[in-house]
Amino acid sequence: MRKVMMLVCVFLGTAGGVSFAEWAPISNGLGELGIRTLAVDPRDAAVIYAGSERALYRTPDGGRTWKEVLSFKGRSSPVKCLYLDEASAVYVGVGPRVRFSTDGGKRWKTLFKVPGSSDRAVLCLARAGRNSEELWVGTGNGLFVLNTRTGKAGRLEGFPDVAVGSVRDGSPDGHPTIAVTNRGIYTVSTDRVHWQKTLLRHEPEAEESPRLGQFDIEELLPAQEPRLIYSAAGGGFYASIDRGLWAAGPDASAWEKLDGRLLGGHPVNAIADSPRTFYAATDAGVFQWDPRSGTFRRITQGLGSRRAQAIFYSRSGDYLLAGTAKGLFKYPHPEINFGPGEGPERSPTAEALLGRFESEPAVLEVQNAAIRYAECSPEKIEAWRRAASRKAFFPTVSLDTDLNRDQNVDIDRGGTNDPDRFIIGPEEKSLDWSIGLNWDLGDLVWNGDQTSIDTRSKLMVELRNDIVSEVTHLYYERRRLQAEMTLAPPADTALEVEKRLRLEELTSQIDALTGGFLSRHTAGRADGGERGSLWNR
Fold first, then answer.
1. Per the confidence metrics, is the pTM higher than 0.70?
2. Angle between helices 378-389 and 449-487 (to 10 degrees)
């Protein structure tokens, strides 16, 4: 199995403070939840495109409503890449075709079809230099330059027939053009002809300066555009490879591993850059790079699934999008407090902040309430076992009854002139009954019901673990939201309403799992419950 390489940018700079926000679901109306690719209209931040295994979806209102604008059901051709130009035209890589629309997905045309009979999938799309009419088209069988006005495309001369997973044209800012392939990294100057391999597929690792090993382009495919980014602040390129961070200079000729920059060993599925930092979508959630400490900070509050498959940062809207197995989520203003000296004023200590919630039930109380409400406590299984162990002392009772009724009929034959007569009776009745008691002393040694109890016990333990895990996740997600609302009160009414509704939603979800336990034990507080201590400070 080959390994994967995906380039990312680290936007270096000073950072201070903490950003308090939370992911909010925006999947209502989406035909499917497994989103793999995302893009936002550069002219209208409310217009979002989301690509999945079977369709492309569009929302004109920031995720409140969705419409399927391109469908390819029945085909194994998921959306591999999306590109939106300055005129809001959208280009989609689906199978061997590049399709485009200039009217928001109402009408589609096939602009380019990869020639050949194998390895024809379109893997990436990127702008080619300063020419807004040209696109790089990376495919499973080489690199092409596509003129979007004429529809003419040509295979790049001098470039090998390899799978191209990512391309960045550096000519506008004086840097080399870089292509990430399944055979290594290739760079070229402005002539687009003399490509040089800067990363060998089987290059050995050096102990004093580790180098990149081989990687698999197939593992690169789920990542979303852009995959290759240059950081002006960092003075070069940054890459997320083999679960670690790698760096290269402006010429991208040599790559070295940055120690201590790991994402906890979690593979990177997608990346997105922003003016001050960059974000990584991994199997353990979304991480934000902190240039000040040189580490990553996990931002998963409200994220419905730990595995994030796609991510996108909208500069015009200042929000993050994350595609997960459980739908699409939005994170507003991820860097609102991201800067030197910024942060909430007069922030209380951790002890003082958490002390505000001491009147609420502890997590253990909520867990026990959920277990009781679901009737899956360990005591229930123990009661079953005790009852089964006493079964041998109780007999099996049987009751039999037998009721018989007989009627005698005789015939009296008369003489020559006398008719025959039938004589009926007398009637005979009999009633028998019996009662039986049966003990199976073998049950004293082994009771067959134990097998059934063991099976039910296993299922009950699994159910209890699922319930406890879910209610614990909701409890601490709610507690994080409470802390956020205390430390960073919303600046506008709309955001305040959104936060309050989210708090009520989490409370209702916990109540649904505990039979209203949380609401009963937080009632009576000032200003309608726990919100009094959060907002009336």
1. no
2. 170
